[in-house]
Design goal:
Blueprint: H1 3-27, H2 29-57, E1 67-71, E2 74-75, E3 79-83, E4 91-95, E5 98-99, E6 103-107
Parallel strand pairs: 1-4, 2-5, 3-6
Helix pairs in contact: 1-2
Length: about 110
C-alpha cells in the first residue's frame, strides 16, 4: 500500500474518532452513537458503490480470460506470469519487478526452461 494511501486512511480514521468523541462530549452518548452509526452506514454504502463501479468497469465477471497482476515482486530467478495453456486474450500486468533472470508474461509451455 502506498504511503499516501496509508496517510489518508490514518487521517480519515482520526477524523472519525474525533467526530464521535466531540459528539459525545458536546451532546451526550445518544447523539454520539447516532453519529457513529451514521458514519458506519455511510462507509458501508460508499464501499458498496465503489465495488459496484469496479465490477461494471471490469466487464461484470463474465470474462473467461485469466487476469494476472504482479506488482513489486522480487525474485532471484526468473518471473513467469502464466505458463502453459492455450488461452488467448489473458490480461497479464507486471509492474516494478526485480528479477535475477528473465521476466516472462506468458510462457507457451512449462517445460521450455531454456
Amino acid at each position: 500500500m502506498l504511503l499516501s494511501v496509508r496517510t489518508l486512511l490514518l487521517v480519515g480514521a482520526a477524523a472519525i474518532v474525533a467526530a464521535v468523541v466531540s459528539a459525545v462530549l458536546l451532546r451526550g452518548m445518544e447523539f454520539g452513537s447516532w453519529v457513529a452509526g451514521s458514519i458506519g452506514a455511510l462507509s458501508i454504502a460508499s464501499g458498496l458503490v465503489v465495488r459496484a463501479l469496479g465490477a461494471a468497469q471490469s466487464g461484470g465477471g463474465g470474462d473467461p480470460r485469466d487476469r494476472i497482476e504482479q506488482k513489486h515482486v522480487k525474485a532471484r530467478g526468473r518471473i513467469v506470469g502464466k505458463s502453459g495453456g492455450a488461452g488467448e486474450g489473458d490480461r497479464i500486468r507486471q509492474a516494478r519487478l526485480d528479477a535475477g533472470g528473465d521476466v516472462i508474461g506468458k510462457q507457451a509451455s512449462a517445460d521450455a526452461d531454456s
